[in-house]
Design brief:
Layout (H helix, E strand, L loop, with lengths): L2 H16 L40 E6 L4 E8 L18 E4 L9 E6 L3 E2 L3 E2 L13 E6 L4 E12 L6 H5 L5 E13 L4 E12 L1
Parallel strand pairs: 2-3, 4-9
Antiparallel strand pairs: 1-2, 1-7, 3-4, 5-6, 7-8, 8-10, 9-10
Length: 204
């Protein structure tokens, strides 16, 4: 396996394990994690990443009618401490497109994350993500005004250690858009939840 590929899988492991940690008091039920910060240099991974977020393909809004989600999309990456970043402009209402992967609608696995709830256990943007059903329609609008449709193909819960990283972040066998948030029980000693919810969708 090429060295850059090994580095990429290592990096994604860090991202997924840390995505729901910190940033909340221990009384919170669950949350998706830290807000955005400066990103470190990441080696070029041509078979996965789309390059810089430029042009008219940048996703700016996601609409999921079945669960009442209609949110602005911020562009996010990783923090200097290797945590997966989440939105900063409106942390609880916006979602984040991971811009080191493909654009939604581009071959590969685009990824969007968002908070499940906020400190104190109050609802955030992805509170109802787990209520989605296979076949639900997802609409993503780009800054160029184009709206793409995706269909939910499966909904899975994983422990951080058992999440299929290649499937979530690196599947290039089609055109996918995957949504990630926290789920399960809050673990005070670890400052994170014990599960990750992943909703897989396919371009239609």
């Amino acid at each position: 396996m090429p060295a850059v590929r090994l580095f990429y899988l290592f990096l994604v492991t860090i991202l997924l394990l840390s995505a729901c940690s910190n940033f909340v008091p221990e009384t919170a039920v669950s949350t998706t994690g830290n807000v955005n910060a400066e990103r470190p240099y990441v080696p070029e991974i041509p078979e996965i990443r789309s390059g810089n977020a430029k042009g008219n393909r940048i996703p700016i809004r996601v609409n999921i009618p079945s669960v009442g989600i209609n949110a602005f999309i911020e562009t996010v990456g990783i923090k200097a401490d290797a945590d997966l970043a989440t939105p900063t402009q409106n942390p609880w209402e916006d979602v984040g497109w991971y811009d080191m992967g493909p654009y939604p609608g581009q071959r590969g696995s685009a990824v969007i994350d968002g908070h499940l709830d906020r400190p104190g256990g109050y609802q955030a943007v992805f509170w109802r993500l787990g209520d989605m059903k296979v076949g639900d329609d997802v609409q993503v609008t780009s800054n160029g005004g184009k709206t793409l449709h995706f269909r939910v193909t499966r909904i899975e819960y994983y422990t951080p250690e058992q999440a299929p990283l290649q499937d979530i972040f690196g599947n290039v066998g089609g055109t996918y858009l995957n949504f990630i948030t926290c789920a399960g029980d809050w673990i005070p000693s670890q400052h994170q939840t014990n599960l990750r919810l992943v909703v897989y969708t396919t371009f239609v």
